[in-house]
Design goal:
This protein is mostly helical and about 280 residues long. The protein has two domains: about 200 residues, no CATH class; about 70 residues, no CATH class. The protein contains eleven helices and two strands. It has a two-stranded antiparallel ribbon with strand order 1-2. Strand 1 and strand 2 form a beta hairpin. Helix 2 packs across helix 4, helix 3 crosses helix 6 and helix 4 packs antiparallel against helix 5. The longest helix has about 30 residues. About 0% of the residues have low confidence.
Length: about 280
């Protein structure tokens, strides 16, 4: 299926998805309990991934679809974590809150190390506040280590590896595949850079668009698939199953099961044979 037809189809699906999930960007908020914050994280993951898929579609429409792969890694890790948390409902909210505190502590420390006392003051932080914040945040680290020991993380670790999370939710092989594919976009990769060069023995032409016919459909397939899996684990009973949402859900499943948005390989015969540039309709 040509790329423009895939884009059109997924645009249709996004409209259906909006019908199913409704407006999850608004929610009641009372006292900021751990459970409320956990709900914010679940909804925010769906909202961000929906926005990410829209960005991938826009990149495809403007001839830059290959770069949509960059948005898959965080989305996939969000989905893995939310599935993992759903398996541990007794500690899920507590984990989320303390992970957020630990993230903030790490950011504060790294910023302090980089810009120093004067820099922190320039961006609005007094050293008195910074020291108090870092000291108070140490409790989150201790809590995470305790919870992690009970959950089987590495001894006294404040977080498990993503590989461990994938193993725990039964997605290790899939994670390895996604990790390999997306790592080429977020880390130095001679192989990925050389993929951009196509031509003849006389002259080479280097451009990312030379491999767009593979990476753009890859980004579309996995962007959609990850969003759907995240919706299932994140929203649960949020939708009240109105007739419109039931019809939209049925149409989404029909499209997904038809195979018209298939996965794309991350290594191809043509690149190993140093053959002609991939067809833009691949």
């Amino acid at each position: 299926m040509p790329l423009d037809e895939r884009v059109k189809l997924i645009r249709e699906m996004m409209g259906l998805i909006d019908t199913v999930i409704g407006d999850i960007s608004r929610m009641p908020f009372a006292k900021g309990s751990d459970e409320e914050l956990y709900q914010i994280v679940r909804r925010a993951a769906v909202v961000r991934q929906r926005e990410g898929l829209n960005a991938i579609l826009t990149l495809c429409e403007t001839g830059h679809g290959a770069f949509g792969v960059c948005l898959l890694r965080p989305a996939y890790e969000e989905m893995l974590w939310l599935e993992y948390l759903a398996k541990h409902p007794d500690v899920a909210a507590k984990l989320i809150v303390n992970m957020a505190r630990e993230n903030a502590r790490e950011a504060m420390q790294v910023q302090l190390d980089y810009i120093g006392r004067d820099g922190m003051k320039a961006v609005g932080f007094t050293m008195k506040f910074v020291k108090h914040f870092l000291a108070a945040s140490s409790e989150a680290s201790a809590t995470l280590k305790s919870l992690g020991n009970k959950l089987g993380w590495r001894q006294n670790s404040v977080k498990p590896t993503v590989s461990h999370i994938a193993q725990q939710v039964g997605r290790k092989a899939e994670y390895d595949f996604i990790y390999e594919a997306t790592s080429k976009f977020v880390h130095f990769s001679p192989n990925e850079l050389m993929r951009r060069a196509w031509g003849t023995h006389k002259e080479m032409h280097i451009a990312s668009k030379n491999f767009t016919s593979y990476w753009a459909p890859f980004a579309l397939h996995w962007g959609l698939r990850i969003l759907m899996d995240t919706m299932i684990v994140s929203l649960g009973s949020h939708d009240e199953k109105s007739p419109a949402s039931e019809q939209a859900h049925a149409r989404i499943m029909e499209i997904l099961e038809s195979g018209v948005v298939p996965p794309i390989p991350i290594i191809t015969p043509v690149e190993l044979a140093w053959g002609d540039r991939p067809s833009q309709s691949a």
